Amino acid sequence: MLAKSPIPKVPPKSRLAVFKFSSCDGCQLSLLNLEEHLLELVDAVEVAYFLEARRRELPPPYDVGLVEGSISTPHEAQRIRQVRRDCRYLVAIGACASSGGIQALRNWADIGDFVGAVYPNPQYIRTLDTATPIAAHVFVDFELRGCPVNHAQLLELVSALLVGRRPNVPTSSLCLECKRRGLPCVLVTHGQPCLGPAVQAGCGALCPACNRGCYGCFGPMEQPNLNSLGDRFLELGASHRQIKHLLRMFNAYLEPFKQASDHHERLEQQK
């Protein structure tokens, strides 16, 4: 009598978890906006935790954890440490998670003034003095920029992590995307301040395609020359105050933007 062959075991699916901290949910929506690709992703992974999409919660550990939002409260500072322990790979997605986001603008002000102006009972609010990126609290395996993230880059990132290769995400400047689309340079042809030469590609040159300067949604590129770019803005008639405000937007607390905006604030105060 022939021995029965053992039944082959079906390899378990990789487990994906998506976490929200202080944010607007836009980067989570980018994941949901993958549309037909989302179905392919669900076939390849088990969505173990994603409250934006489903109520079912599976316990850790997780293979890949995507984190949206900055750390803005004592509870979040404690929770992110547990999330780090629960995930094999931890990825910060979006400007809030990778730089602190718009809410990091409060880092240049007194948080007590904001709390008192917004909430009728500020004594119940528990918040940190600063809003900071995920990497300021725990080790992050990868950061995906954008406000919101590019959904195609998000799919590339998750796919790469699942098969164990390095994600193919561009680090070149936005100007390269403008050239590929055949767009005239807003800075040269219109004389408008544009952060494109110093900003990482990723949006497909959305604003320059509408004849508007780049606002820096994807943060600084590798080795941005913000001093030279700021000098050019001054030649075009921009003030130090205007340059400071341009830099203090979606990725204001990333070090290259922070240093440059602080520099222009000092020059503004000297006048």
> Which sheet architecture does the biggest sheet show?
5 strands, parallel
> CATH H level of the largest domain: which superfamily?
NADH:ubiquinone oxidoreductase-like, 20kDa subunit
Strand content: 5-15%
Structurally, how many domains make up the residues?
2
Structural class: alpha/beta
Number of strands: 5
Shape: globular
Cα-atom radius of gyration: 21 Å
Order of helices and strands: EHHEEHEHHEHHHHHH
Distance between the termini: 96 Å
Average pLDDT number: 91
In CATH's first tier, which class of the largest domain applies?
Alpha Beta
Give the neighbour order of strands across the main sheet: 2-1-3-4-5
Descriptive report:
The protein has 271 residues and is α/β, with parallel strands linked by helices. The chain has two domains: 14-163, NADH:ubiquinone oxidoreductase-like, 20kDa subunit (Rossmann fold), CATH 3.40.50.700; 174-270, no CATH class. It is 38% helix and 11% strand. It has eleven helices and five strands; from the N terminus they run βααββαβααβαααααα. It has helices at 26-32, 36-44, 74-86, 94-99, 111-118, 151-163, 174-181, 186-190, 226-235, 240-247, 255-270, and strands at 14-20, 45-50, 62-68, 87-93, 142-144. Strands 2-1-3-4-5 form a five-stranded parallel sheet. α10 packs antiparallel against α11. The protein is globular and about 60 Å long.
